[in-house]
Amino acid sequence: MSHRLLCSRGKRGVLTATVAVALVAGCDGLEPGGSSAGPGPDAAAGQVASPLTNPDGTKPGLGALTSEADRANARRLVEELTVKGRGPKTGYDRDEFGYAWMDTADGVPLARNGCDTRNDLLKLHGQDVEFRRGSDCVVVSMDLYDPYTGKDIAWKKAKAAEVQIDHVVPLSYAWQMGASRWSKEKRQQLANDVLNLLPVSGSTNSAKRDSGPASWLPPNKPIRCSYAVRFAQVAEKYELPVTAPDKRMMLEQCGG
User: In this structure, which of 32, 73, 133, 136 has its CB flanked by the most CB atoms within 10 Å?
Assistant: First the structure.
């Protein structure tokens, strides 16, 4: 199956990042254990986007990082993150971030386009997308390259749970790192921002739960530096600190 993905859409929303790293990407996962699946589609060929050249998340895919120059840029991005301890989960509820996949979270790409966030993500990252008859929104089947496992998924809506939308920075994690004090609007942005969302294997997403990088990394080793970059991009954009163990693990994945 070809891994050519759909073109990206949309503009960057609010909460502009202070770091804009723009280089073509690459980094080998260094932690022992886990899958040694290949890097998947070739980012250099334009099939998937490097996170370093996709700071708003509106391009499809998550390309593996492979060059030392990009590893160095990835480490610089991670090094800028502030560190604090993880706070209590007291008061956390998914509804604190708005109802799931709302199309009305202002200030993020693809909002208010008449299609909910989940279907927007399936359209953005899927290939050979088919819609429900009479709809240009509801995806009923597609092919997906899952960067977390390095595998292809032939997905159909009849088995919807086989693909889940991962919050790269989990909402519970964000709550414990400061989002409990945010406005409702900012929490809704985080929950529906394409920068913080990736469609992936449902079982893999379930295994992640609300873990930070020190506790969970994608089983596909070659994508781990890219995952660390995306986690850092979200944290930087929303001014979220990370835990010290998470920061160390993110740097390790990119050769630090």
Answer: 73
Two structure tokens written together for 61: 């895919």
Burial of 35 per CB tally in 10 Å (0-12, 13-18, 19+): middle
> Which pLDDT band, with edges at 50, 70 and 90, does 40 fall under?
low
Quote the pTM value: 0.84
Torsions phi, psi for 200 (to 5 deg) = -145, 175
DSSP β-ladder status, 151-156 and 163-167: unpaired
CA-angle at 151, arms to 161 and 159, nearest 5°: 20
pLDDT of residue 256: 80
* Angstrom distance (rounded) from CA 189 to CA 109: 10
Nearest Cα residue to 247 out of 86, 91, 132: 86
Return d(Cα 141, Cα 133) in angstroms, integer: 12
Find all residues with CB under 8 Å of 110, minimum gap 6, and list them: 9, 10, 58, 117, 120, 124, 194
Candidate from 22-26, 41-45, 90-94, 243-247 with smallest mean pLDDT? 22-26
* Torsions phi, psi for 153 (to 5 deg): -125, 120
Identify whether the C-beta of residue 70 lies closer than 8 Å to the C-beta of residue 24: yes
DSSP category for residue 241: -
The candidate with the shortest Cα–Cα distance to 205, out of 243, 170, 172, is 170
Six token digits for residue 123 = 């359209």
* Distance between CA atoms of residues 253 and 216, nearest Å: 12
pLDDT at residue 6 greater than cutoff 80: no
pLDDT in the model for residue 9 = 36
